[in-house]
Specification:
Structural class: alpha+beta
Shape: elongated
Strand content: 15-25%
Radius of gyration: 47 Å
Helix content: 10-25%
Number of domains: 2
Distance between the termini: 166 Å
Amino acid sequence: MSCLNHLNKDIFLTLSAYQKTTIINPKFYKMNTNLSFKTVLLFLVFVLGATSLQAKKKKEEDKSDTCKSSTFSGLKWRSIGPAFASGRIADFAVNPDNPAHYFVAVGSGNIWQTTNNGATFEPIFDNYGAYSIGALAMDPNNSNVVWAGTGENNHQRALGYGNGVYKTTDGGKCWINMGLKESRHIGEILIDPRNSNIVYVAAEGSTWGPGEERGVYKTTDGGTTWEKVLFVSENTGIANLCLIPLIRM
């Protein structure tokens, strides 16, 4: 019993000494505190240094980049043509008595008129069932009379076809369809300068198939009736015409 008491006492003293050494040893506590402080300080120095370096790098990049979005924020895209409203210019008809006044036939944009040499243009053929124009001819004896052949005369992958020949007698205010509605594409219109009622039309016909309404047509009554004066075949159209004046010796 006495030996057991001595053993228990020795164990208690040993544990007490161990607790005193590990828990309240001043040297050990001070060493741990210094180590934690240094670790935190080094971490803060690293974070501040990295942040400063990143800010400096971003500042240098911003300084070298002169193309900022704010520089161009006032600029806007705009169309400069030519395909937005027209696309292909097919023909002109110029007033011989006033060169500043003329008509423009557009392959995919109707007919336009200018009276100030092109400073401004006015659309004058928007409501007549055909947007594609292939030929124009102004009467050399009367500038208010203009003939228009619908259906552009440029054969390509994408093209617009028309619905015949039109005529205006009031300078483009009103247009009347004068026939040849199945000709689809008009290549040329010629007016006899000696007689304004005599008009020749080069009809190209359908681009993608055969057709009977193609060849050269002539009217002697201002478009009331038409005579086919040249026909090669249902697959052959006429694209151009030319009047050669006779020279009498």
